[in-house]
Write a structure and sequence with these properties.
CATH architecture of the largest domain: 3-Layer(aba) Sandwich
Helix content: 10-25%
Radius of gyration: 24 Å
Structural class: alpha+beta
CATH class of the largest domain: Alpha Beta
Order of helices and strands: EEEHEEEHHHEHEHEEHHEEEEEEEEEE
Oligomer: single chain
Strand content: 35-45%
Number of helices: 8
């Protein structure tokens, strides 16, 4: 039995369905991420699990127990918010100790548990520091320690890394992975940052307009998106309007903006239907000469170059008008705007999507 089960959960605000019939199962010890654009419903769903929002219909079960009617403070769940919500007049020690003091635990037990929690988040030397004297990452770790001090069955994290700068954010991602692995507590993490979700999660649920578009491991969601929304939302991807000319057991033959493309097979595809061909930029090769060892190879002109240090993202306008992205390391040959190039990809790369 799953640790957390959400069954047909719906939450409406007037006529607007923030959450529209969502069903999810989350296993014990899992790092599970709710991913989606702003306004997709992910924070509303998190608040429903925590008990801060009521369900209009559906049910949420934790350890097989229906959470309906159970107030937030009585649920074995804790939430870490984006703002950290630390008490400014309390030290790191006292902030972490607060839930235990509210539960009227003995002071000796509180001292032992808080010191261990500070050690778990590598802040043992900061126990007497006030939030104003802590960095953003340190404040985040205090908030995490406070959330974990009662060993909740479930820790909910609402955009909790969003306020950090890029370098600190990466450091905290590693901290979160290590902490979750060490403690074995189930994390449900909300973010709109695709790279963060891919780096942290055991599984990801992609939400859009209050509904779940796809659930799966990061590699599956990134490499085999179910539809155009997921393909477009997760990472960079080139999409070209296409018509199926042949649907065979081992390949598809597509016509896309004047190009003939050989693509991996898709059982539901039928000749004559319209969809898109989508391919990740790291699957595309690029050079000055024809890439004739690849079945799909075309001439084009570089329209733009986005330098990222170790790699560059090229946008190439192909003959026929299609725009293709290619991601290349900067250790090899580089190209400039208006360079005439050839791009190509394997016959089993990319995907056809008809929804």
């Amino acid at each position: 039995m799953a640790l957390l089960e959400i069954r047909n959960a719906t939450r409406r605000f007037g006529r607007f369905a923030a959450i529209d019939g969502v069903s999810l199962s989350i296993e014990a010890g899992e790092f599970f991420t709710l991913l989606g654009p702003s306004g997709c419903g992910k924070t509303t769903l998190l608040r429903m699990i925590a008990g801060f929002e009521k369900l209009d219909s559906g049910q949420i079960f934790l350890d097989g127990r229906d959470l309906s009617g159970i107030p937030p403070e009585k649920r074995p769940v804790h939430t870490v918010f984006q703002s950290y919500a630390l008490f400014p007049h309390m030290t790191a020690f006292d902030n972490i100790a607060f839930p235990l003091r509210m539960a009227k635990r003995p002071e000796r037990e509180i001292g032992e548990r808080v010191l261990k929690a500070l050690g778990d988040v590598r802040l043992a030397e900061k126990s007497d520091a006030y939030p104003r004297n802590l960095s953003g990452g340190e404040q985040q770790r205090v908030a995490l320690a406070r959330g974990l001090i009662n060993r909740p069955r479930l820790l909910l994290l609402d955009e909790c890394l969003a306020a950090l700068d890029a370098k600190l954010r990466v450091e905290m991602q590693i901290e979160l992975i290590d902490l979750q692995k060490e403690l074995g507590i189930t994390f449900v993490f909300v973010t709109h940052a695709q790279d963060e979700a891919l780096a942290l999660s055991h599984r990801i649920a992609v939400l859009n307009r209050g509904r779940v578009e796809q659930v799966g491991e990061p590699s599956s969601v990134y490499g085999s998106p179910r539809n155009r929304f997921v393909a477009d939302f997760i990472g960079h991807i080139s999409q070209i309007e296409a018509v199926v000319r042949e649907s065979a057991p081992r390949h598809l033959r597509l016509e896309a903006q004047g190009l003939e493309i050989t693509a991996p097979p898709m059982k539901s595809a039928v000749a004559g239907e319209k969809g898109i061909f989508a391919i990740r930029p790291e699957q595309v090769r690029m050079g000055l000469d024809d890439i004739t060892d690849l079945r799909n190879h075309y001439r084009g002109t570089v329209e733009s170059v986005l330098y990222r240090g170790d790699v560059s993202l090229y946008k190439v306008r192909l003959e026929g008008g299609a725009l293709m992205e290619a991601l290349l390391p900067n250790t090899g040959r580089t190209f400039g705007v208006n360079d005439e190039v050839c791009v190509g990809w394997r016959h089993d790369a990319g995907m056809y999507l008809n929804e």
